[in-house]
Amino acid sequence: MRDSTQSVYELFYWPGLQGRGEFVRLCLEDAAALYIDVARSPAHGGVDGLLRVMREHDGDGPAPLAPPFLRHESLVIAQVANILHYLGPRLGLAPDDERARHYALQLQLTVADLVAEVHDTHHPISTGLYYEQQKPEALRRTEAFVEQRLPKFLRYFERQIARAGGAFALGSACSYVDLSLFQAVEGLRYAFATAMRAIEPELPALVAVHDRVAARPKIEAYLRSSRRIPFNEHGIFRRYPELDLAPSWAKSS
Q1: Which residues lie across from 10 on neighbouring strands?
Q2: What SS3 string covers 105-154?
């Protein structure tokens, strides 16, 4: 059930890129929740404020290893799927049924797996190296991703949406999973346009979910606003022409 309180959510993530923080932003925006994007707000501490919370965390639980993390009242929560599992019921973006909430979390964790593999296409050796320092390895990793892993993930989501039998991933109601699938499709279209053009005809249910999310009034307004950071080559989804590959299954179809 949607939380009726007006307490403020504080999102901590790096400024200047969508990254993993965008999955959280989409939920806060869709619900018109009161939130502060701390590192993008000098008045609320900016990046120094983000680093301070990580360094001086005095909450009940463990300190976050890395952004994104969310502070709500006295609670500090890290990891995107964990954050969304917390926010979903409070923002009206999760099922009421406990079993269905676990299904939502399962799908969200699978989205997280996909996002991690996307990241590793341009940083296959180390996050401490620039992309330019690992380009041959990145090309090999991307070849395997586009050839095998991308279709595996997207066909899986297509089957689950079709199986749910409704307009969204869990049935008739939009959830945080649908917002994350929207972001995944958007990012993949940006980073791997050639492969996405080839596979999207196989994914009518997933594409329909993407389009329904894009048409939600608050999401539509957010996408037009300055709060939506454009895709760029500093986040998870990056467009490098040399990695925008046409897989063999596309050539033979």
Answers
A1: 36, 71
A2: HHHHHHHHHHHHHHHHHHCCCCCCCCHHHCHHHHHHHHHHHHHHHHHHHH
User: Across the strands, what pairs with 9?
Assistant: 35, 72
DSSP-based three-state secondary structure for 77? strand
* Other beta carbons within 10 Å of 126: 10
Whether the CB-CB separation of 152 and 146 falls below 8 Å is answered with no
**Domain edges within the chain:** 98-217+245-251
Tens of pLDDT along 152-201?
Answer: 999 999 999 999 999 999 999 999 999 999 999 999 999 999 999 999 99
Pairing state between β 69-72 and 35-37:
unpaired
199 contacts 250 by C-beta, under 8 angstroms: yes
Residues 6+ apart with CB under 8 A from 51: none
Mention the CATH class of domain 98-217+245-251: mainly alpha
Rounded-to-integer distance, Cα 174 and Cα 181, Å:
11
Q: Which two structure tokens, joined as six digits, stand for 171?
A: 């049935």
**76 within 8 A of 61, measured Cβ to Cβ:** yes
Strand pairing report for 9-12 and 35-37? parallel
CA distances from 251 to 164, 188, 200, 204, 245 (A): 31, 19, 14, 20, 11
What count of residues does the chain have?
253
User: Cβ neighbours of residue 144 under 8 Å, at least 6 residues apart?
Assistant: none
Give the separation between CA 169 and CA 179, rounded to whole angstroms.
Answer: 10
Q: Could you tell me if 189 and 196 are in contact, meaning their C-beta atoms sit under 8 angstroms apart?
A: yes
pTM of the model: 0.95
CB 225, CB 185: distance < 8 Å: no
pLDDT per position as a tens digit, 72-130: 988 999 999 999 999 999 999 999 999 999 999 999 999 999 999 999 999 999 999 99
